[in-house]
């Protein structure tokens, strides 16, 4: 990190180049060029210490914290800077390489005033809005088509104020309606998390944590310096509740007792009502629930179909509706609204991922996904507001309606493969190194090859590792690749794939290097694996039921088992049984492919989705906090195998090995918050 005596400049000159880190530009005479985000950050960092040698290790620790990247990552950034500034390494006028040490900025550095701002509304068409800092840059491209008539659409004015500067992971923020206070959760590698309440104006922060309490979904409360949050008291018989946390008194009061965990929380100040989610006992799925303070009672609002689940409820400004996300599969999410009488309306089509959403007014919403930030009306009219730079996404968006402010969080994350060798302990060892996202790892039965999905070249594609050589598979670019599984002879690879809302089963032959996809339709599917006869099994969503299917890739024949409601399944190592969870109660079942079906008793806190695999005796599963657990089916003992928080990501399917385990490790490297004015096209 930079030494405290150095000042980080947003606007400066290096020799005759004027650098604007707010807009990611370098200007000389009449020539203006665009700076790449990481290059601008590193140049800004070096400009704070002209003439000093900055080691490569320091640069890696500062700009790639907690990431496993190759040496070439920094080489490419320095090369890009030199090319942009018309510099060279042999006779440097800007950046000199100090052999075996690092780099030195040899150019003259002068502070310059920022460009003048014009206080008028601008029509923005394809303009990149750049936010530059030590840890986070987002290039925001907005394209507006002004219309004199309804519907009213939100507009970004292009000026952003950074609220936080920290490498710590910051989750589930909430901005008060007057944009004066911000609350969020700081996550760490310990078992607890920390609740933060921040003054937007003064940037001062108050902290609250408890050794036996976990917090989630904080909301700024109307009481002074107070926050509402979902809590879990780990040492109590009824652990879940909605509590009021008073930061002045350092006190916590339970307000609403919950029967299960909640997947969201919203508070309407005028009506004093609260919405959250609760499990539909005996089902594992969630529905939206309203707490009425007048009668101190809970009222279910949403009615998800069997196997579907609702989360992240948010009150409309009027308090007459609640918007939420409905999930029917890990790759299928849509925004719905429900009024206080329980009448539901679907707002968006189902899509692979929705990271956040909020109301813009009583008739339209904003939402974000991997592609950017959008506005959508009740009729489904959608308009794109901004696009983040590659390898970043809008992780959170919230509107402070009283003052027309927009809170955004731009998140950068990367993922790699990690393996546990149980014969030597629980230390996780990396099996890939990448600037992109590697996931869904599957090692062949003969242990000679490893397959995984990766975004190393931009699009998600299938990659193979063999004899320590990596290569991508030709024509394997998809929107999503998951459920990778090897045939017994290690010569065939199967997976679930998604492209343009179509799902299919992919096969790749190692010997012929031929890839084939058998496309089904728009219904999600989950590949199970290969049976002893080299047939592939998968489950497919039909209405609200998941039907089990056996497919012969040689004869192209299909046999369906419609009576088996199989959501996710795994073959036992000897292929004699199928262990599966159903989509309704998510009960664990053991089936011998005949008439013998046995329910398996599992602990209440054992949440299974894609996060599990089996061996001959039990179930490996990754908890929501990233810890690895093992449940022995015979003696019903549940124990932690890896206790480190965040060791593995529960979003991806792992693989158990004879003496080990391989999974996906995900690292969030940037998650700061930004504030902008939000206007509309009727102003």
Per-chain topology:
Blueprint: E1 11-14, E2 17-20, E3 25-28, E4 31-34, H1 37-47, E5 53-55, H2 56-63, H3 72-84, E6 95-98, E7 102-105, E8 109-111, E9 125-131, E10 138-143, E11 154-162, E12 169-175, E13 181-187, E14 194-199, E15 205-208, E16 213-220, E17 226-233, E18 240-246, E19 251-257, E20 265-268, E21 273-279, E22 286-292, E23 297-300, E24 309-315, E25 321-329, E26 332-339, E27 344-346, E28 356-361, E29 364-369, E30 372-377, E31 382-386, E32 392-400, E33 405-421, E34 428-430, E35 438-443, E36 449-457, E37 459-466, E38 469-472, E39 480-486, E40 492-499, E41 502-509, E42 514-519, E43 525-530, E44 536-542, E45 545-552, E46 557-565, E47 568-571, E48 578-581, E49 588-591, E50 597-600, E51 612-614, E52 618-622, E53 628-632, E54 637-642, E55 655-657, E56 660-670, E57 673-680
Antiparallel strand pairs: 1-2, 1-8, 2-3, 3-4, 5-7, 6-7, 9-10, 11-57, 12-13, 13-14, 14-15, 16-17, 17-18, 18-19, 20-21, 21-22, 22-23, 24-25, 25-26, 26-27, 28-29, 29-30, 30-31, 32-33, 33-34, 33-56, 33-57, 35-36, 36-37, 37-38, 39-40, 40-41, 41-42, 43-44, 44-45, 45-46, 47-48, 48-49, 49-50, 51-52, ...
Helix pairs in contact: 1-3
Unreliable stretches, pLDDT < 50, 5 or more residues? 1-5, 118-150
Helix content: under 10%
Largest sheet: 7 strands, antiparallel
SS content category: mainly beta
Average the pLDDT over all residues and give the rounded result: 86
Shape: globular
Our measurement of the CA-to-CA distance between the termini, rounded to an integer number of angstroms, reads 44 Å
| Helical run tally | 3
Would you count the extended β strands for me? 57
Q: What is the strand content? A: over 45%
Integer-rounded radius of gyration: 26 Å
InterPro entries: 6-blade_b-propeller_TolB-like, OmpR/PhoB-type_DNA-bd, Sig_transdc_resp-reg_C-effctor, WD40, WH-like_DNA-bd_sf
Pfam families: PD40, Trans_reg_C
Protein name: Winged helix-turn-helix domain-containing protein
DNA-binding region: 9-107
